[in-house]
Automatic annotation (TrEMBL):
Localization (cell): Virion
Cited InterPro entries: Phage_capsid, Phage_capsid-like_C
Record's protein name: Phage capsid protein
Organism of derivation: Devosia insulae DS-56
Domain Phage capsid-like C-terminal: residue ranges: 136-391
Pfam families according to UniProt: Phage_capsid
Length: 402
């Protein structure tokens, strides 16, 4: 076998042919073509995190580990190399390509994350996108319409008054820390990489989805946004049969019409169990009453439907995507440490005297590594009437016509 310029050639074969040209052609090695399969979404990010974790957060060591463990992952290797020396992100031959590599596969993790979240499903398929705006940009928002008046000849014209407010989406970040044992990292294989990826994704998904549709989630200044249904007066469901479904949807749409909010761009958001119950409901002829909705979503009354188990039980949301602002960095930042001490709790506290959490666990003492992921994202309703909420929906639960 022969290797030349990283191209694999098969063994030379015996010369054949009736002249020099044919003999030369028969002796010329033929290159074997190798096609590298693109890794599963999020795996490059997981490999970056594993290399960083295996090195205990040491970038130099992580770079060497990545070269040894993932020799074909050029973007992972060059991204870890990016922090080894000084440079500028505008230099076309030094740091700029390295920064670009990290953004690409960090973005790859976000793309893996997005379809699994409520927010991530906006803009996918037939579901319209939320209104995207940059961070820290003030946007004037009109909260009331003006009026026109009939005016008689020679009469004074009344003034028209408009009400405005201002919306600014500041920097807000959602973060998680996943703790992995050194054994898992050291003896990792593709399965372990999936574990790392899924652990980081699962925590971010839970936080984003819960806070996006939790009615009790109020805004915390300079920390986190309110849910899109926080402060919205809910409508109580009228029953469980098909007629009740019609009545409930009419009530939701009526709130839009009363507030002069266009139904165009509206999306239903509901639990998977609610969508499944709707898909099973049948009319008096035994036909499916709502054939276009299923356990995974679809459409409902001609509007797209997003399904998530983080929607409160019995809650159905009608949200107008044009009336909800979203600021999203689109990247995930990752860091790792094998020396930190963590409070192993999803509700850490700080001691008033020491400023430290209680019951700290040493990563060094327990042969563990903590991987931290952060994503900058924020949202806000353009106006309160952008969302209508139905509560107590138990459609299809043993009722006549279900």
């Amino acid at each position: 076998m022969t290797f030349h310029n990283n191209v694999f050639f098969k063994n030379y074969v015996e010369a054949k042919g009736s002249n020099f040209a044919e003999a030369y052609a028969s002796k010329t090695p033929k290159a074997g073509v190798s096609i590298r399969q693109k890794p599963e979404p999020g795996l490059e990010f997981a490999r970056f995190a594993i290399a960083l974790a295996a090195a205990g957060g040491n970038i130099v060591h992580a770079h060497e580990i990545a070269k040894h463990r993932y020799p074909n992952e050029r973007r992972v290797i060059t991204s870890l190399k990016a922090a080894m020396g000084a440079g500028t992100t505008t230099n076309p031959t030094w740091s700029a390509p390295l920064v670009d590599s990290y953004q690409r596969f960090a973005g790859d993790f976000v793309e893996f994350l997005r379809p699994q979240t409520i927010i991530g499903q906006f803009g996918a398929g037939s579901i319209p996108s939320l209104r995207r705006i940059p961070f820290n940009v003030s946007i004037p928002a009109q909260t009331s319409g003006g009026e026109g008046y009939w005016v008689g000849e020679g009469k004074p014209k009344p003034l028209t008054k408009f009400d405005f407010s201002e919306i600014t989406l500041g920097f807000a970040k959602v973060a998680n820390i996943a703790v992995l044992t050194n054994e898992l990292i050291r003896f990792s294989n593709p399965d372990a990489e999936l574990i790392v990826r899924d652990q980081l994704a699962a925590a971010l998904i839970a936080r984003l989805d819960t806070d996006f549709v939790n009615p009790a989630k109020a805004a915390v200044a300079n920390v986190s946004p309110a849910s899109i249904i926080n402060g919205v007066t809910p409508i109580a469901s009228s029953g469980a049969d098909i007629e009740a479904v019609d009545t409930d949807i009419k009530a939701l749409v009526a709130t839009y019409l009363a507030a002069n909010v266009s139904i165009t761009g509206a999306v239903f958001i509901m639990r998977a169990t609610t969508a499944f119950s709707l898909s099973l409901m049948k009319n008096v002829l035994g036909q499916k009453a709502f054939p276009e909705i299923s356990l995974t979503g679809g459409s409902f009354y001609g509007l797209p439907a997003i399904v998530s188990d983080y929607v409160p039980e019995g809650t159905v949301i009608l949200a107008n995507t044009r009336e909800i602002y979203l600021a999203d960095d689109g990247q995930v930042m990752v860091d790792a440490s094998g020396e930190a001490s963590l409070e192993m709790s999803d509700a850490p506290t700080n001691d008033a005297t020491t400023g430290q959490g209680a019951s700290l666990v040493s990563m060094f003492q327990t042969n563990s590594v903590a991987i931290r992921a952060e994503r900058y994202i924020n949202w806000a309703k353009r106006r309160t009437n952008a969302v209508a909420v139905l509560t107590g929906a138990a459609w299809g639960d043993g009722a006549l016509g279900s």
